[in-house]
Each structure stands twice: as C-alpha cells, then as structure tokens.
Amino acid sequence: MKFIRIGAFLCALSVIFGAFGAHGIKGHISSDLFEVYQTANQYFFMHSIAIILYGLFCQSTKRETKIWPGFLFMVGIFLFSGSLYLIVLTGVRAFGMITPLGGLSFIMAWIGFGAHARS
User: Distance between CA 118 and CA 57 in Å, rounded?
Assistant: First the structure.
C-alpha cells in the first residue's frame, strides 16, 4: 500500500482546509463552530501524519501485509473530521452522530499499529 503518498496528500489537503478555515469561513461562523472546524482540522492533520508513520513502519520492517491500521486511519479521518466539517458547513448537528465512529476507527488504528509493531 502506498500509505506514505496517501498520507502526504492528506497532509496537503488538511493544510488547504486549515487555510480555508482561517481565511474563508472564520468571520462567517460562530466561534463555537470555528472551534469545531479547528478540531476537525487538527485530527485530520495529526492522523494524516500517522498514515505516513505507519507507511514508513511497514516499509522499514518489510511488513506491508497488515494494512488495516492504515485504512482505519483513513476511515477515521473521513468519519471524524468529515462529520465535523459537515456540521460546520451545513449547520446540521445530526452529523455529530457519525463522529464517534471516526473516533473508534482512530482508536482501533492506533491499537492495530501498536500490535503490528509488537509482532
């Protein structure tokens, strides 16, 4: 799997989203919603870095067969950050029901990463 490339692309995308938040919507939404946006972006960036780290780990240990933790990081970004971005952009707080599933994906990815590193 090409986790390093995917993670680098997602890092770039998170920077773009961060710039959009700071310069495009900051003055147009409430401070509470802007805080939600910042949380989405922080987790997006942090877990994009995690995807790169996981890719480097797999490459350096020649263990590229266990790819599910990397995929779970991506699923977590999509569900966690994506649902928070949707709340901010649409005002529909019901998207918040998706957010914990993204958090669970992150937790499972980190546990998988640790278990993979141990074996």
Answer: 12
The residues spanned by each domain of the chain are 3-118
What is the average pLDDT score of the chain? 94
**If residue 62 lies in a helix (H) or strand (E), which one and from where to where?**
none
The count of residues in the chain is: 119
Where does the chain have alpha helices with state H? 3-20, 31-61, 68-76, 82-90, 99-118
**Per-residue model confidence as pLDDT tens digits over 32-66:** 999 999 999 999 999 999 999 999 999 888 876 78
Contact 84, 44 (CB under 8 A): no
Cα angle at 5 between 58 and 8, to 5 degrees?
110
Return the exposure string of 26-38: e unless at least 16 CB atoms fall within 10 Å of the residue's CB, then b.
eeebeeebbebbb
pLDDT in tens, 12-41: 999 999 999 999 999 999 999 999 999 999
Q: Which pTM was predicted?
A: 0.93
Written as one letter, the residue type at 95 is: F
